[in-house]
């Protein structure tokens, strides 16, 4: 069907094309890894914050009391916000999850 010379030429072209594809694939993988580097950093920061966030609420109250006295000696609203903030935050979070569950329950 095809002469031998044409088949040899097509085989060489195919091999060169496969090399070019492999090279381009490696370049694309390297570029994607470079582009994804900030996303990896954000992902690590999000995982770290999820581990620390329950502790941050407990540590935030005493730290804020320590900061409040020297910085805002006469400002009483900050102390009430710090005192009631975690309770309000927990209540809002609970309401949000209850609303989300109510939306997913079939009627």
Quick recap:
With 107 residues, this protein is mainly α. It has two helices and no strands.
Q: How would you explain this protein's 3D organization?
A:
By secondary structure, the protein is mostly helical. The chain has one domain. Helix content is 91%, strand content 0%. It is built from 2 helices and no strands. α1 packs antiparallel against α2. The longest helix has 68 residues. The mean pLDDT is 82.
Q: Indicate the low-confidence ranges by residue numbers.
A: none
Rg calc: 30 Å
Proportion of residues in helical segments: over 70%
From the spread of the alpha carbons, the general shape counts as elongated
Structural class: mainly alpha
Termini separation: 68 Å
Overall residue-averaged pLDDT value: 82
Major sheet characteristics? none
Question: How many beta-strand elements?
Answer: 0
Contiguous helical run count: 2
- What is the chain-wise order of helices and strands? HH
Secondary-structure blueprint:
Elements: H1 4-71, H2 76-104
Helix pairs in contact: 1-2
Attribute tags:
107 residues; 2 helices; 91% helix; mainly alpha
């Amino acid at each position: 069907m095809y002469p031998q010379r044409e088949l040899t030429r097509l085989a060489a072209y195919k091999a060169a094309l496969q090399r070019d594809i492999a090279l381009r694939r490696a370049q694309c993988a390297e570029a994607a890894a470079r582009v994804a580097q900030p996303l990896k950093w954000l992902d690590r920061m999000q995982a770290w914050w999820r581990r620390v966030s329950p502790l941050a609420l407990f540590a935030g109250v005493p730290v804020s009391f320590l900061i409040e006295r020297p910085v805002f000696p006469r400002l009483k609203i900050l102390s009430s916000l710090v005192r009631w903030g975690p309770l309000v935050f927990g209540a809002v979070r609970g309401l949000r999850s209850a609303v989300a569950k109510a939306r997913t329950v079939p009627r």
